[in-house]
Amino acid sequence: MSQPQNPGDSFNPFASPKVEGPTAAIAADPQGYVIEGDLIVGQNKIVLPHICVKCGEQQPADGEIKRRKKDLYYVHPLLYVLAPFQLLIFLIIYMIIRKKCQVEYSLCRECLWKTQVNWIYFAVALAVLFGSVFGMIQFDSPWPLLGFLPGLIAMIVFAGWANGPIQISKYKDRKFYLKGAKAEALEIIAPETAYQSPYTAILAEDGRMG
Ligand SMILES: [Zn+2]
Q1: Which residue among 62, 137, 159, 170 is least packed, with the fewest CB closer than 10 Å?
Q2: Neighbours of ion ligand 1 (CB under 5 A)
Q3: Domain segments of the chain: what residues?
Q4: Hey, which residues does 33 pair with through a beta bridge?
């Protein structure tokens, strides 16, 4: 059975699920969310149940060290085009227009390790980056600089992965669309009182979705 969104709520299989649009469902609960395809949609604070977002494993609700509370930021991807040329201007615009979404979610021990191991890859990429600059100076040759750009890109990618699986995919109509939760988890964390297709609503009334 799926975890009720708030600990106090008890799941009533006979209640008719409200079949409403996602906006109405989110508006009813400021920390609530709906699932759209493989994305989690909500407002600027999204609290997910104590379910590992990668494998769907139930996590203990009390004293859980693997609970993640992340501030995620979103700017339109086109802004990043500016970064390599006008870093300072990019940073100023980024700080002004970025949209913040605080998301709280769980990871099991194994999935947490798989996330944090990316910090090691990040360190390797950083070493490649420094090594390329050092090599250029040491050997007085531009060739070691070939490692600079791959090192930089790898650093950004690994830092992103190490920060956690949940990332902002898009921001539209004052709603955040979060990617990174696996299908196994999405199935379990889908809120049953919120937006559902009429098909799943019928299954729920039958009690078979519980
Ligand atoms: Zn897991």
Answers
A1: 62
A2: 52, 54-55, 57, 108, 111
A3: 1-107+165-210, 115-163
A4: 42
